[in-house]
Amino acid sequence: MTITHLAKEPVSSGNTLYRFLAKQRQIAIVWSIEDVHEVRPDLSDEQAWLVLETCKRNHDANVGITWDTLEITADYLFSE
To answer: I need a surface site. Which of 7, 18, 19, 40 has the fewest CB within 10 A?
Structure first.
């Protein structure tokens, strides 16, 4: 399967956010508290949300947000 093929059939085409962004010719990558729980299952939902908010606030477009970013931020905020 090629990138071109994938681009023709977006996975979330029924999603309102996807449709809004598509009209603007924009994309977004979405991370959730469930993703934070994958790297730090010990955190509460509120703590996981704080991790996401901190990642957003400190976002570096050269690096992006990755699994490592989530884990490092979670460890910084809530050391084990």
So the answer is: 7
Instruction: Give the residue from 48, 29, 79 showing the smallest Cα distance to 70.
Output: 48
Spatial separation of the C-alpha atoms in residues 41 and 51, rounded to whole Å: 13
Q: Exposed/middle/buried for 31, CB within 10 Å: 0-12, 13-18, 19+?
A: middle
Return the H-helix or E-strand segment holding 13: none
**Distance from C-alpha of 53 to C-alpha of 47, rounded to nearest angstrom:** 10
For residue range 34-56, list pLDDT tens digits in order.
999 999 999 999 999 999 999 99
The pTM for the full model equals 0.77
